[in-house]
Structure to design on (240 residues):
């Protein structure tokens, strides 16, 4: 059955691949952006050209008020049954040199962003007795990573929220899972890892592709993944 899906950060590298894949599965996709509305529009154009259906939506996930207003207008058309919380940032620094701003911005985007977007969508999803929520986490939350105390804390909070929310809604036909990528080829990772570092860190000796993450998200949001919930699934070329 075809659903209405919202992918936050659809203007980014991994988010765009997820949007295109969910549209290929036949879902109507809201391609979300914050600053990158042009990139989101390009994703919608690609989806339309391939025969799919999509629309852009834009808001800052750290702003509860404007996020709520934007979501209310989507909910006027019916429940959103597939939600991919993919918007996220990193702002790395070794901890003694980390500013309060670096700490709060990264945590707010992931954790407050998760609340601001997910909470308003829950009751309509619950009433529809079907839902799929996928939260984009990171290997940093599992292994730790030097220079990413803020990012690891943010993604660790998402993993914990994933499990608790999954338990609350398990009896309503709603699954909640997290996907924890390792190094995926996007603008976010290109600046952080060169080829030598990737060969050293990744047993498969290559970075993952956004499309490979999208494939896992497509599975988790499918009918056949109905019994997979409260999990953190790694996709990292064997890094752990
Ligand atoms: P990008 O930097 O390409 O994209 C990040 C996305 O998040 C953009 O669409 C951006 O929107 C959106 N975003 C950032 N801040 C906000 C905000 N305040 N409000 C709304 N949207 C916001 O990142 P990736 O595609 O690489 O990463 C996607 C997810 O995957 C992230 O959660 C990241 O932490 C996670 N991840 C990525 C890995 C990698 O190797 N690339 C590894 C592990 C996890 P806009 O540009 O429109 O402002």
């Amino acid at each position: 059955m075809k659903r209405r899906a919202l992918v936050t950060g659809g203007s980014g590298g991994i988010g765009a691949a997820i949007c295109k894949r969910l549209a290929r599965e036949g879902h109507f996709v809201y391609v979300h952006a914050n600053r990158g509305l042009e990139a989101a529009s390009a994703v919608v154009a690609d989806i339309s050209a391939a025969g799919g259906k999509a629309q852009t939506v834009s808001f800052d996930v750290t702003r509860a008020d404007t996020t709520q207003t934007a979501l209310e207008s989507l909910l006027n058309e019916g429940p959103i049954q597939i939600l991919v919380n993919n918007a996220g940032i990193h702002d790395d620094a070794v901890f003694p040199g980390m500013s309060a701003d670096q700490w709060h911005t990264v945590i707010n985007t992931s954790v407050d962003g998760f609340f601001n977007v997910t909470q308003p969508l829950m009751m309509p999803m619950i009433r529809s007795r079907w839902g799929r929520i996928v939260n984009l986490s990171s290997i940093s939350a599992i292994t730790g990573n030097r220079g990413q105390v803020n990012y690891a804390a943010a993604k660790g909070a998402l993993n914990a929220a994933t499990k608790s929310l999954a338990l609350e809604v398990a009896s309503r036909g709603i699954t909640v899972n997290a996907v924890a990528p390792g190094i995926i080829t996007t603008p976010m990772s290109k600046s952080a890892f060169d080829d030598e570092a990737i060969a050293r860190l990744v047993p498969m000796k290559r970075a993952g592709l956004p499309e490979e993450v999208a494939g896992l998200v497509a599975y988790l949001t499918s009918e056949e993944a109905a019994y997979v919930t409260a999990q953190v699934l790694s996709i990292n070329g064997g890094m752990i």
